């Protein structure tokens, strides 16, 4: 098994030291129900290697672990015909509300009228053409 962190909850789930409700598992990833169950079927997918978050992924890590996103999303969607959408997200870093510091992806099934609100904000009125150009150029310079 790849390098794991003995103090990490998700590493303990991978090794079986901590209980989980597994829905999919292979040599690369494990997917299991999130105990919060924001909506029925809310699932987490974790790589079977301790990676803190996407900032620490190599291109090879991304290719190896993220290829399972469509497979897991489609299985969750098929389990309940009432599912009409899905939020697929990852919180990266404490300031982005990452609680367990092991990379994981949330699959949150969505139902018409489920009342769940994902908080965002629109700051478009605060940006000029020059502001957009400046931010885009600064990001481009980092590639």
Automatic annotation (TrEMBL):
**What are the GO MF terms of this UniProt record?**
catalytic activity
Enzyme active site: 104 (tele-amp-histidine intermediate)
An example Pfam family from this entry, by short name, is HIT
Q: Which InterPro entries match?
A: HINT, Histidine_triad_CS, Histidine_triad_HIT, HIT-like, HIT-like_sf
Short sequence motif named Histidine triad motif, residue ranges: 102-106
- PROSITE patterns (alphabetical): HIT_1, HIT_2
Please name the PANTHER family in this protein's record: ADENOSINE 5'-MONOPHOSPHORAMIDASE HNT1, HIT FAMILY PROTEIN 1
Every HIT domain range: 9-117
Its GO biological process terms? nucleotide metabolic process
Sorted alphabetically, which CDD domains does this protein's record hold?
Answer: HINT_subgroup
The name this protein carries in UniProt is Histidine triad (HIT) family protein
